């Protein structure tokens, strides 16, 4: 992040996002993007299926972006041009994200999606890796996020912004994905702050609550994007059974490995779905 501007993100998050969006337009020469993708752990390789990016640059060169600290989150931004029915679709891709557990507050966590909306994106695709709370889910399986449970006691929204969250993960878009991949399952994603994984007791608690997937991201971004009027698609790649399910310990290296293994299938899914979303 450009340090003389770091205060702006916290005091004026939307103004900072607007400035960053202007910088993206200048760097890429693309005045308006249509769809943004946030590539979570294990998903970065999947965007190679979208073709050759027309531009790639470092997020932290833009107003308000912090350098990423997690393995598998490079902090690069790419722009792709895809076509559908002869028309051109501009896709903005964030390789990696900032998480609440990094301790910088919630503003950096949602700055990417806010910037994407300010570049013109009306659809935000949020990908992540997660642990399976639902014991029928298998490692390497993509799951459509149908709804979420937030257990972080924080929100990207401040003040009397009483946003309706009954269709955050757009039903319209979920139907398009299911038409593309009829076997894809849906689930409820629960957000814990981390960085520690859960205890087996916590996993049993959230299973009782109706959760299918557990992770440390996506929920604040979905809320921030929805509050700005964007439609959200959330897809989670199951990379481990949640704590206590198999009796094995959880290890971030396994998460990255499971993601690498699923790269091809996730790429095909994104490449098929993205042109149909607009
Ligand atoms: I990948 O089991 C991944 N991310 N909180 N718990 C939480 N986050 C995760 C998990 C998990 N697996």
Give a list of the ligands.
8-iodo-guanine
End-to-end Cα distance: 32 Å
> How many strand segments?
9
* Overall average pLDDT: 92
**Main sheet summary:** 5 strands, mixed, barrel
Going by CATH, the homologous superfamily would be Nucleoside phosphorylase domain
Q: What would the principal axes of the Cα set say about the shape?
A: globular
Q: Percentage of helical residues?
A: 25-40%
* CATH fold call: Rossmann fold
* Integer tally of domains: 1
Our estimate of the beta-strand percent is 15-25%
Name of the top-level CATH class = Alpha Beta
Radius of gyration: 18 Å
Q: What's the CATH architecture name? A: 3-Layer(aba) Sandwich
As laid out across the biggest beta sheet, the strand order is: 5-8-7-6-9
Structural class: alpha/beta
Structure write-up:
The chain is of the alpha/beta class. The protein has a single domain (3-277), classed as 3-Layer(aba) Sandwich (Rossmann fold), CATH 3.40.50.1580. 32% of the residues lie in helices and 24% in strands. The protein contains 7 helices and 9 strands, in the order ααββββαββαβαβαβα. It has helices spanning 6-11, 13-28, 107-118, 171-180, 200-209, 219-227, 252-277; strands spanning 35-39, 55-58, 76-84, 87-95, 123-132, 142-150, 185-191, 213-215, 231-241. The chain has a 5-stranded mixed barrel with strand order 5-8-7-6-9, surrounded by 4 helices. Helix 5 links the parallel strand 7 (185-191) and strand 8 (213-215). The two termini are 32 Å apart. 46% of the residues are buried. Residues 1-5 have low confidence and may be disordered. Bound molecules: 8-iodo-guanine (8IG). 8-iodo-guanine (8IG) binds next to strand 5, strand 8 and strand 9.
């Amino acid at each position: 992040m450009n340090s003389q501007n770091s205060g702006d993100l916290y005091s004026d998050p939307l103004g900072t996002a607007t400035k960053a969006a202007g910088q993206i337009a200048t760097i890429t020469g693309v005045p308006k993007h249509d769809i943004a993708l946030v590539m979570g752990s294990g998903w970065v390789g999947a965007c190679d299926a979208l073709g050759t990016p027309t531009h790639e640059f470092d997020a932290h060169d833009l107003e308000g972006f912090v350098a990423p600290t997690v393995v598998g989150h490079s902090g690069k931004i790419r722009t792709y041009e895809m076509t559908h029915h002869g028309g051109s679709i501009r896709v903005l891709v964030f390789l990696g994200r900032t998480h609440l557990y990094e301790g910088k507050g919630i503003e950096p966590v949602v700055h990417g999606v806010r910037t994407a909306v300010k570049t013109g994106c009306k659809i935000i695709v949020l990908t992540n890796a997660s642990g399976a709370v639902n014991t029928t889910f298998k490692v390497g399986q993509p799951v459509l996020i149908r709804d979420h449970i937030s257990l972080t006691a924080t929100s990207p929204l401040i003040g009397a912004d009483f946003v309706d969250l009954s269709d955050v993960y757009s039903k319209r878009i979920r139907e398009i994905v299911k038409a593309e991949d009829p076997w894809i399952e849906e689930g409820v994603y629960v957000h814990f702050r981390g960085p520690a994984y859960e205890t087996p007791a916590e996993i049993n608690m959230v299973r009782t609550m109706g959760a299918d997937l557990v992770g440390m991201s996506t929920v604040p971004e979905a809320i921030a994007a929805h509050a700005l009027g964007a439609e959200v698609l959330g897809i989670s790649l199951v990379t481990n059974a949640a704590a206590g399910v198999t009796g094995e310990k959880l290890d971030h290296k396994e998460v990255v490995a499971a993601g690498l293994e699923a790269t091809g299938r996730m790429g095909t899914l994104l490449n098929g779905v993205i042109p149909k979303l607009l």
